[in-house]
Write a structure and sequence with these properties.
Residues 117-137 are annotated as: Disordered. The protein has a domain at 58-168. The protein contains 4 helices and 9 strands. It has helices at 4-25, 58-61, 76-85, 155-161; strands spanning 52-53, 63-70, 91-95, 101-103, 112-118, 124-127, 138-143, 147-152, 163-168.
Length: 173
């Protein structure tokens, strides 16, 4: 005959085992071997959409540029004239080794290679590899071959730098 103390210990162990099995089935940290013949499908990793090409080529923006910025759209014409005057000390955009352009990111002293990236909405961006638009990207607001206007995606950088106006400098004689 089983003593009541022994029966209580067996019942407690059985309850603890059932509780452990239930917790394991809830997705807790414990993993028990599967007794079924089929294994669940592996979780799909979130895919990164392939980078879309921009409608502006990197070689189109390589060159010497006068640079200025504005906050108020009414100041655009005056800012373009101020940028043109900066051609005495131009901002130089060079071609990168892997097809991008060498430019500065916001608040970075050292220029680095950035990509020209497209988007499903048809907008173009300049920025490091990664999702478009990324926090370090700048949107190309307009480009006509002579004047390039960009705006940083990061709200803080956009507030500090405004709309960046690049005016192509005439080639040296």
């Amino acid at each position: 005959m089983i003593s009541s103390a022994h029966a209580r210990t067996v019942a407690n162990l059985a309850a603890a085992s059932c509780l452990a099995l239930l917790l394991g089935a809830c997705g807790g940290g414990m993993s028990l071997p599967s007794f079924s013949s089929s294994s669940p499908p592996p979780e799909a990793e979130p895919g990164v959409a392939p980078e879309m090409p921009a409608t502006i080529r990197a070689d189109e923006i390589v060159g010497r540029w006068g640079l200025a910025s504005f906050q108020n759209p009414a100041d655009r014409a005056r800012t373009e004239a101020a940028a043109r005057a900066q051609c005495k000390n131009p901002y130089v955009i060079t071609a990168g080794s892997s097809g991008g352009v060498i430019m500065h990111l916001a608040d970075q002293a050292t220029p680095q290679e950035l990509r020209l990236k497209g988007s499903p909405s048809g907008k173009n961006y300049i920025g490091p590899a990664g999702p478009t638009p990324g926090e370090q990207d700048r949107e190309i607001v307009s480009f006509d071959g002579r004047v390039l206007i960009t705006r940083f995606i990061d709200k803080d950088a956009a507030t500090r730098y405004g709309n960046m106006v690049y005016v192509r400098c005439a080639p040296r004689a």
